[in-house]
Structures are given as structure tokens and as C-alpha cells.
Amino acid sequence: MTDDGDAAAPPHRTPSQLLEAARVVLDANWLGASTKPSPTLYPHQWNWDSGFIALGLATYRPERALREMQTLFDAQWLNGMVPHIVFNEAGLGKYFPGPDFWQVTRSPHAPVHGLTSGITQPAVHGFVLQMLLARGVNADAIRALVTQVMALHRYLYRERDPDAQGLVYIRHPWESGNDNAPTWDGPLGRIDPSVLVIPPYTRQDLRHVDDPRERPSDRDYDRYVHLVDVARSAGYDEARTRETIPFQVIDPAFNAVLAWSSEALVELCTHFGMDAGEPREWVAAAHRGLETTLWNESLGRYDAIDRVAGERIPMVAISSLIPLVTGAPSPAHTQRIVDTLRSPDFSGTASDPLRAYPSCARSAPTYDPQLYWRGPTWMNTSWMLWHGLRRHGHSAEAARLFDEMIDMVQVHGFHEYFHPSVNLPASQRGGFGTGGFSWTAALLLDLLTP
Ligand code: 2M8
Known about the structure:
Layout: H1 15-29, E1 45-46, H2 47-57, H3 62-74, E2 85-86, H4 99-102, H5 125-134, H6 139-159, H7 173-176, H8 185-189, H9 218-233, H10 238-244, E3 249-250, H11 252-271, H12 277-294, E4 295-296, E5 301-302, E6 304-306, E7 311-313, H13 331-342, H14 344-347, H15 379-391, H16 395-412, E8 417-418, E9 431-432, H17 438-448
The structure holds (2R)-3-hydroxy-2-(alpha-D-mannopyranosyloxy)propanoic acid.
């Protein structure tokens, strides 16, 4: 059984019932100083989840929205990295890998309590703070957080962009947030199982989903664990890790989120009378990197780059289209992206429509509508594309996407991810992973609250 709360179960017939149910989800997952992504599968604080969650909280509990962000940044490392998980003591032992596995105090930069992971996640915080400010969250507190977000962006450009090309790399699939996207298959597949150093471990995640086929495979997990082991063996020193870690990928979505947040930092710094010169440089470099290095003219989307192999990765994942959310794409590139979004791969056909864009192209051999980041629709990627469509003037497509996102939750409830097909047989489940999922609820609140 998934861990969906009864009060949040579908169907929610009216917008006000839907809003109330979304608040029930977020309130149930509140831990006192932050919000867990779901009741049992994810019992700690996750980095980019908290950004999306804060946007939902800001619509009805602005003081909690602020606390959410402050708690996350209280765990910021001395080198500026914001960890992908901040462990909540009450949840210890319920999620793998926990702090005893990460052993982050091997790094002189980690918080002394050691209750964090040793990787990061997409840097949503800049644009989140800008949106919180617009929702009336305390401006002085936001100004203080802006300084911390600046330190995070400095870390990313200093440690993850060694070639100074305005594009940062990730060193673990979990850093992308799109954990088992087919984009990583090549780089992960290169890791030779016969030489893997895999410390013993027990997965906990499979206990909380209806069907283990909705989660990454054991083979994937072995590689995830191996990559953690490589970084911790290097004491989380970025330069040393770079010499040995076999997974280093430049992901268009990670870089787009960073660019969008840098754009927001320019606005925030200007608003608060702070120097906006540095974020302005980040924006220019990121736009250049996306448009000149990652853009693939023949496919009309952005490629990822495998730094270790020195190769481009042919993209079928939604992350190749997420740069639409930034100011980078030219009008011609924007049109190509929108054409791809409207194509059968991401919108289906008149007789077999897809809702709110799946996480991977339907014609890809790896497409699986039920498997985590390899086909299902996710609320956060749809929400980012909605912003991108509006920003670049595609309001009709944005309006259609808006309706589809609401419809998806109305029909299936507050799930983690969703079957993209609209015409599902009545016997077929449409909501997957965990129920009671915080960012689905939070982004719905954000969408429905003007
Ligand atoms: C998923 O990732 C975690 C590892 O970080 C997991 O599968 O255990 C991803 O969907 C990620 O994007 C998300 O932040 C996290 C918590 O919702 O779950």
C-alpha cells in the first residue's frame, strides 16, 4: 500500500475541495521546522522538494514557507553546498542511505552534527525566494537567505565548472532529482560491476510503494551506492572526487534551474540594493553555455554531456526541454522546443492523448509510463515548463498545460508521479510511487492561488 492519507484521496470535485486536500497533505507532512516529501517513503527534508513546498506553504502559511527555507540553509556546508537531504532525527533508520552511510563529517566543510547527505540537488532557491517575496513573505529574512543562495551558486561555479564554461556538472544521478532518467544509462552503464566497491546495504524504499517496478532497479542502486562511496572516500573534497568519480554529467535541466535562479538573484539583489554584478555574470555565462554548447540543432533540444567520456548524450528525457524556463532560448529555439512538446512524443495523439508531458519521450525504447523518471508525468517538471511557456509568450499552450496539471491531481490524487495517458482503462492505476506527496500538493496550491 502507498502511504496516501485518506483525507487527501481523490476524487476532489471542486477547486476548493482540492485546495483543502492539498493543505491537508502539507500539514500532515510538516515536521516542525520543515516538511517531509511524503509520510513514510521520504521521512527527512529534501532540498529541491523544500523549494517547491515553500511555494505552496506561502499561499496559506507564509511563516512556515520561510522556516522551510531557513531550515534547509541552516544545513548549508561551509563551502556553500546545500545538501540534498537534511536528516530529521525522528526519521533515522527509516530511509537508506542515512547519515551513518554518508559519513559527511569526513569533510571539514560539513555541519558538525553530520545530519546531511554529501551531494546537492537542483538550485531552485533563487527563483523560490523571488516568488516568496512576491507572496509577501518577510523581506528581511529573504534578504538574509539571498546571501546564502549566492554562496551556493559560488560553490557550484567554483567546484563544478572547472572549465569555466558556464555549465556545472553533477556527480551523482540523485543530484539531478531525475534519479533513473535514461540520460544516465550510458554513464552508469560504463561502471564495471566486477570492479564495483559496494558496501553492504538494505533498500527501504521498496516497502512503501505498491509495485517495486515503479522504483529504480537494484542494479541502479548498486551504482548509486558505489558513487556515494567514491565521494566519501575522497572526504567529499571536490577536486579529489573529480579525479576518481566515473559519473560527471552536465545536465541541461540542472543548469537551467541554476540559470533561472541566477536570473532571480539579479532581481533580488537589485531589489535589496545589493551588488548584482556577480549573478549577472552567471546568467550571461549560463545562457551562453545552454545556447552554444548544449543546444542540439538537429534534434531541437538541449543535450547532456558526459564529461568523463567526452560525449554528448542523445536526450529523450524532459530535462532536455526544461531550459525553456530560462531567458536563454532564442525565438527559433523556443519554437523548436514547443513543437517537441506538442509532438506525439510529449502530447500524444488525438485518439490517445498524454497529459502534462511525460518525463520521457513516448517513442523512446526506454519509455515506461509507470517507472519513476522514465515515463511518468511529474508535477514539478510540468510546472517549470508552464513557467517557460508563459515566459516565452505561448499562452495557449500554457493554459492547456495548466488545466492538465489540475485535472491530473483531481483524477489521481496527490501522488508522486502519474501515468501520462488520459485514456486509461478503469482497472489501471494512474498515480504511482508514494501518495500524500508534498510537492504535488504544494505546486497545485501555487497554481490555484493567484
Ligand atoms: C527521489 O529521490 C530520492 C533520492 O534523493 C529517492 O528516490 O529515494 C527523487 O524523485 C528526487 O527528485 C526527490 O527530491 C526525492 C524526494 O521527493 O525523491
